[in-house]
Amino acid sequence: MTMKYYEDKTAVITGAASGMGLLTSRMIAEAGGSVVMCDFNSDALKAAVEEVNALGKGMAYAVVADVRKFADAERSAALAVEKTGRIDLLVNFAGGNEARCCKSFVPFYEQPIKVIDWGLDVNLKGAVYFSRACMPYMVKAKSGVIVCMGSVTGFEGDGNGAMYGTAKSGLFNFVVGLAKAGAPHGVRAFCVAPGPVLTRPAMAKMETALGRAIEPKEIVDFILYLSSDSCPSVTGSTYLVDAGRLCVARGSTAGFLEAGK
């Protein structure tokens, strides 16, 4: 019943060329919905959109976008409305630990400013920019859901990629603001904070109470359930889905970098 909800709906998805962004795009399209797939990697995005459209069900559209640029967010939202007349769902998947993504494996106090800026801009401002671009269309339609991707690191912190945890904890509060602004107009917002997800094999090295990492589909299923009409009262909350990561005693202070460089 949850996936039936997405028939004829339109989603804007950042970080859509791979991982959970691609999986979400595929699942919405399989249900008969449309997806505007946004990603910085043009080659990977082209292949991902072709993969989704090959399903022969819902339609996928590509937008090569840098989430650090508000103009790209505006362009993505405008394309969704131009092509489908609506935006029902925004999922802000784009992000990453700046130490790993920028290959700068040094303590925070030695991190170059350009790495610090990358961590804040991609993980926090990207979600803010895309939410700001998409939300007016939702307010006008009196309906819509905005999803931000947090992380267990938003609770743990990280001594190397300190901006990753800082940005993710910022999203916990950001969805509260979105919920307050959107409530009078039928617009909901929430944050999902995963623990180690098997979007790359190294995540299996991270310790959890359940003794395993999380399958990407577990997170995507959860997001799509909360975003559907099965959960019309869910807004302003952050949901930790970490396989019990925070339940275990930890000696490391490296956060996600313990999964390998």
Helix content: 40-55%
Mean pLDDT: 95
Number of strands: 7
Through-space gap between termini: 41 Å
Gross morphology is: globular
Query: How is the biggest beta sheet arranged?
Result: 7 strands, parallel
- Low confidence ranges: none
Structural class: alpha/beta
**Strand order, biggest sheet?**
3-2-1-4-5-6-7
Word description of this protein:
This protein has about 260 residues and is of the alpha/beta class. The protein is about 40% helix and about 15% strand. The chain has 8 helices and 7 strands. A 7-stranded parallel beta sheet has the order 3-2-1-4-5-6-7, with helices on both faces. β1, α1 and β2 form a beta-alpha-beta unit. α1 crosses α8. The longest helix has 29 residues. The chain is globular and about 45 Å long. It starts with 9 loop residues before the first strand and ends in a 20-residue tail after the last strand. About 50% of the residues are buried.
Q: In brief, what are we looking at here?
A:
The chain has 261 residues and is an alpha/beta fold. It has eight helices and seven strands, in the order βαβαβαβααβααβαβ. Strand 2, helix 2 (42-53) and strand 3 (60-64) form a beta-alpha-beta unit.
Topology:
Blueprint: E1 10-14, H1 19-30, E2 34-39, H2 42-53, E3 60-64, H3 70-84, E4 89-92, H4 98-101, H5 113-141, E5 144-149, H6 153-156, H7 162-182, E6 187-194, H8 216-227, E7 237-241
Parallel strand pairs: 1-2, 1-4, 2-3, 4-5, 5-6, 6-7
Features:
alpha/beta, 42% helix, 7-stranded parallel β-sheet
